[in-house]
Amino acid sequence: MSSAPALGDRALFPTLAARSYLAHCAISPLSAPVHAAVVEYVDSYARLGVGALGRWLEQRAALRGRIAALIGAHADDIALVANTTTGVTDIAFGIDWKPGDRVVLFDGEFPANVTPWQQAAATFGLEILRVPLGGFGMPGHAPDGLAALRAALATGVRLVAVSAVQFQTGLAMPIAAIAALCKEAGAELFVDAIQAVGVVPIDVSVGVDYLSCGSHKWLMGIDGCALLYVSPHRSAALVPRLGGWLSHEDPVGFLMGASPLRYDRPLRARADVFEGGAPNGAGLAALGAGVELLHSLGVDTVFAHVQRWHDAIEPELLRRGFVSLRSPDPSRRSGILALRTPVDAQALVRLLGARGVVVSAPDNHLRIAPSWPNAMDEVPLVVDAIDAALREYGGASAAS
Ligand SMILES: Cc1ncc(COP(=O)(O)O)c(C=O)c1O
What is the pTM of this model? Predict the structure, then answer.
């Protein structure tokens, strides 16, 4: 089998059971190269034990650079952490807050980008402000999101935390414009990018200070690892309260006899200060393989393919009584086509699943989330499955 990925070709997913897999915004199925990387990892430890470590340390060093290239960053500014939440928590507990500092969050955010800020607020006496999302490009809303954010920033805000793509609606936030407002107001910007990296082009050089992104969605790895970007302009000012034994300068010298055991080595003033203990090596092996697939296709190409897919299915769904939440502004679109459904969304997820079409519907927003392996000719198949599911739903509710 060739390991080169091709748009609309699922040859690299030979065991994928679904006829159409449209839940990349939830959990990506494993491609053959990702599967093989995990097998190689566990096999190498089965054979060599500690002797396998060197090879995987090299893999991680290379991975930083490949991840950095996906988001316009430098390898030194990437930490490999456990999940998106850990990245949020590291920063939420790593800023030298003053009591009363204000943090802006957005209504409707995924809780991973809320709870750690609430915890930090309770710990450090911060004030949380909330800004509505609608005005950032949702259909039927006045485009007043940036004005609302500017008004919030004018009250004196220390940090804005936002998801690059909103998990329920698929709204892609205007990160460059938000970064510009933050800069103007002297606020820091944290981005949860798990719904963007790998499908929506994103570049931290527009003024993102921190970015956290788990590996099991559009990066197509497995769960249990994530990347955390920390701007080199911010790392020295952080207080890495959650650092661990690997956070020090020269953390492993004592293991090889290169330097004596000490507890007073300084903590690194770099992103990888948040790599406090042994990582999820199998997950990082998987992430490496997933990232290579994306580099070989190009994220712009994946984005364009996904938009074509959404363009093809959206009118079919509108004709059947679904209400699209896709932004009328193409620059606010993402890998998620979200819709309000004419019938109970969770029932629809089950009925479609029974027909081999895998979708997700958090908080009753149906999400159609294809990625590069989805072929355009899956669209009629999915439409047929939706028709059959709606008929079955109608039949069952008429009978009850
Ligand atoms: C916007 C967003 N952030 C974070 C997560 C998950 O966070 P974690 O990687 O910590 O599980 C999800 C989905 O699971 C999400 O949609």
Answer: 0.97
